[in-house]
Amino acid sequence: MNQFRFSRRPDIGDKIRVSFEFFPPKSDEMEARLWETVTRLAPLKPHFVSVTYGAGGSTRERTLKTVRRILNETQLMPAAHLTCVDANREAVDAVIGEFVSMGVTRFVALRGDPSAGVGTAYQPYPGGYANGAELVGALKRVGNHDISVSAYPEKHPESPDFATDIEMLKRKVDNGATRAITQFFFDNDLYERFVERVRRAGIYIPIVPGILPVHNFAQVKNFSSRAGAHVPDWLAERFDGLAKDPQTHALVAAAVAAEQVLDLVERGVNDFHFYTMNRADLAFAICHMIGIRGDLAEKNTTSAAA
Ligand code: FAD
């Protein structure tokens, strides 16, 4: 059982790093929720927090505003996502310039989904960056930035095979990517096999697992195949009948994510990226279980010593 193996290693939290992903809020209400989430997760001292960027620049202003606020009002290190969709190089370079001038040094560089919708053929924008690798090159040309890119343990849905995907990852690394963050997945064996393939291809950057705490199973099931992630039968079984029982759903979600993360820790993984969906509770609980206490630990130590 994971918990018994885990309880013999109480120091494990010192070795683990986490990052949290947020999306830019659309309304005042959503903004208030995001900042509650940021405030709750900040004491865990994440390695960085990232803010997504809508395809075609649809969230440009909101992403810029959110990153600016993180820089101005917190001690957190923001990473700005960027995509290549529906924008020429000048437009993308202008956004990069805005981020750089506000002091951003970390980026998550992505191609983005086709503007005609997931499942349609991707058409690079005329005069634009054609894919994630070209965008990494553009970012690297303007500074020695820390650049994360995407990786797909179950392969990208548009890819004919793993070799094509890994070749693209290699191009991103050759252009200066320093870390890959995976699409979410639920089967750790798939992640492990993917990392083996990547290493065999001579790619040695960290492949950080992207963990999606399941806040709403129906939604996850809905978008998982489009995202290139499959929902195993055992997972569907766990959430079966819980659509109208949010309390039990949340407890099961915490258990499922903790089980996945603890198993990855056992497999030697030390870095985790959480797709928070701008909600703190599940991410916070899972971090607590893997020993990430941040300021909380300091407070506990201080009060014990007093
Ligand atoms: P790329 O890595 O450039 O390409 C994906 C795959 O398509 C490649 O692996 C390759 O197999 C194939 N391919 C691409 N170009 C070529 C080519 N010229 N020739 C042959 N094959 C090719 N989306 C957003 O809109 N905003 C975000 O903020 C965002 N954040 C994300 C963060 C993470 C960690 C991840 C995993 C995904 C994120 N996405 C985001 C989703 C992402 O935009 C989609 O998955 C998109 O379909 C692919 O973008 P990419 O950067 O992975 O593409």
Report on this structure.
By secondary structure, this protein is of the alpha/beta class. The protein has a single domain (12-300), classed as Alpha-Beta Barrel (TIM Barrel). Helix content is 46%, strand content 13%. It is built from 12 helices and 8 strands. The chain has helices at residues 2-7, 28-41, 60-73, 89-101, 132-141, 162-174, 188-200, 217-227, 233-239, 246-266, 281-289, 295-305, and strands spanning 17-22, 48-51, 78-82, 106-109, 146-151, 179-184, 207-211, 271-275. The protein has an 8-stranded parallel β-barrel, surrounded by 4 helices. Helix 10 (246-266) packs parallel to helix 11 (281-289). It is globular, with a radius of gyration of 19 Å. The structure holds flavin-adenine dinucleotide. The site of flavin-adenine dinucleotide has 24 residues, from helix 6 and strand 6.
